[in-house]
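tool_call: predict_structure(chain=1)
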Amino acid sequence: MKAQLDDALKAAGFLATLEVADDRTALHLTEYSSRSPLGATVEAATEWLRRSGIDATAARDEQTFRVVLTLASADCVRTLIATLLQPLITARTTAQQLDDVLSDHGINSTVDAGTEYLNLHLAEDKLGPAITLARLLGAPGLADGLQLSRRRGIRRLTERIQWLITGVVGSPVSAEVEPACPHEVDRLTIAMNLEQARRLTERLRLAKAADPWSGAGQ
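tool_result:
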């Protein structure tokens, strides 16, 4: 179970250390992740374990002052993985799949994910990656008539992108833009839930085969 939990921690990107108890009857998990729902106190962690149905105990490490969970059974470890880590693994996988398909199309982006939502960031002067994304989604003229050197034009493009992706995924997404300034390029952030991200990824995978510019320059 230690190997299984180790693998799940790595897949989830959950920062923690894992040790076998001296009598080899339990595992000690010390969490360092800022994304942990356990809370910073023993009381909060104990309450989270109770609500989650995980038969484990929490204590304070006297050297690191971190919360340490003691997991004394295989069932306990499996429940912890399913409750705490699997949602993080699913979110990271979804984000990576979207990032990969965008990269395949030559679109520079960054994707960060929580357990239910993710943010897609597209940053470049005049939002070139967003215009490429629109073309892939069947709207090659989305920026027509807009003066993208001006803030109003960038905001209008953001609104159009938001409605386009909303139509593609079948439910509303949100979009915000930070217009360029002397030290920063235009930056568009599109927020969506994981199901919407999966639908967008599938649409882009379909576009890959039909897009004559896909992977150009790679």
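agent: The helical segments are 2-12, 42-52, 74-104, 128-136, 151-169, 194-210. Proceeding to next step.
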